[in-house]
Amino acid sequence: QKLNMHVDFVVGDFDSVDASALARATSAHTQAIRHSADKDFTDLESALLLAVDKNSQHIIIVTAGGGRLDHQFGFIAAMFNPKLRNCKVEALWQNNRLFALQGPANCDIATQVGDTVAIQSFSDKSEKISTTGLQWQLTNESLNNFETRGVSNIATKEQVSVSVELGQLLVIHQPKGTS
Description:
The protein is α+β, with helices and mostly antiparallel strands. Helix content is 17%, strand content 37%. It has two domains: 1-94, Rossmann fold; 97-179, Rossmann fold, CATH 3.40.50.10240. The radius of gyration is 17 Å and the shape is globular.
């Protein structure tokens, strides 16, 4: 309601959702898909796979972030599900914007000079990574998932571009002055 968005589906076990909030969400032509709390996948993963089944090409996940650390890792991991390879997947996480790139893929990010942009490999090795609009550019370079070289880069232009040919990259945009 606060975002003034129409929601087609709400998905999950609803174990942590206020009953009145769920009732409000499902009263406006929104279908609730309920799963058992005893399952081996997250609610987010289920929702993302539903979006793929509905032929979504661009998925934006909105979250307040925070909470349990295992849920945060699971959230990011779900963004890289191989079934999402042909979708543009991004998340609005508190003040940050996250992009899951599964090569070959690219993203263009509207930034302000001084914003922080971080790039982290989410596979053993991501190859042929190129960037524009950043203080420390990458040109056809590789990153491993244990390297931290992509952290804390700075936007030098009002648009940053990141591309990867092979592998998976998590790109995080944090506007200047936010945490």
